[in-house]
Amino acid sequence: MPSLPPTSIDPPAAHAPVATAVSAVAAAWFAVLTALSPPVLDPGIRLAVMNAFATVCHQMPDRTFHVDAVPLALCHRCLGVFAGLAVGAGVGLLSRATRERAYVHAGGFIVAALIPLALDWTLDVVGLIPNTTASRFGTGAVFGLLLGALLIAALRTKTRVNPYAATGLQ
């Protein structure tokens, strides 16, 4: 089947610069370290950090790790997601095979990673099995690992955008 010639909106396949992926990994680790920092921060800075993370996490005291009676900036599950994201991004950056598998099977991996989260939450809500600190952190970490690998896969896998795909004019 003949294809249309490239246009200014049909870029050639390319990798994102390695620096972009490294920056994403660094940002993920910075977020994790910042979420862990409240116990060692001045109260004014601690409040700013807690408020910043409150936009993504409920920070319920009974579902948040504490160090010397000071809560971390993320609950158990969110901390697991953020930590998993940082580790998964690092693994994705270092392993081309991981990136390619994550990219090709992204939809299935996302569904598979959501199942433990959904089960942990649902079984607790319906009163069958209460979730625990370990189950919340663990299911969050599994999901975060996948998200991290997918993030790097999206940044580093060769892709070709076809602006005509939706019109059927390939």
Please sum up the structure shown:
This protein is mainly alpha-helical and 170 residues long. The protein has helices at residues 18-36, 43-53, 76-94, 96-104, 106-125, 133-156, and strands spanning 64-67, 70-75. It has one domain.
Features:
60% helix; mainly alpha
Helix proportion: 55-70%
Number of beta-strand segments: 2
- Regarding quaternary structure, how should these chains be classified? single chain
Task: Walk across the major sheet and give the strand order.
Answer: 1-2
What proportion strand? 5-15%
Characterize the biggest β-sheet. 2 strands, antiparallel
Query: SSE string, helix = H, strand = E?
Result: HHEEHHHH
| Overall residue-averaged pLDDT value | 85
Which class do the helix and strand fractions yield? Answer: mainly alpha
Q: What's the number of helices?
A: 6
Global shape: flat
What does this structure look like?
The protein has 170 residues and is mainly alpha-helical. It has one domain (18-158). It contains six helices and two strands, in the order ααββαααα. The protein has a two-stranded antiparallel ribbon. α5 (106-125) packs antiparallel against α6 (133-156). The N and C termini lie close together (8 Å).
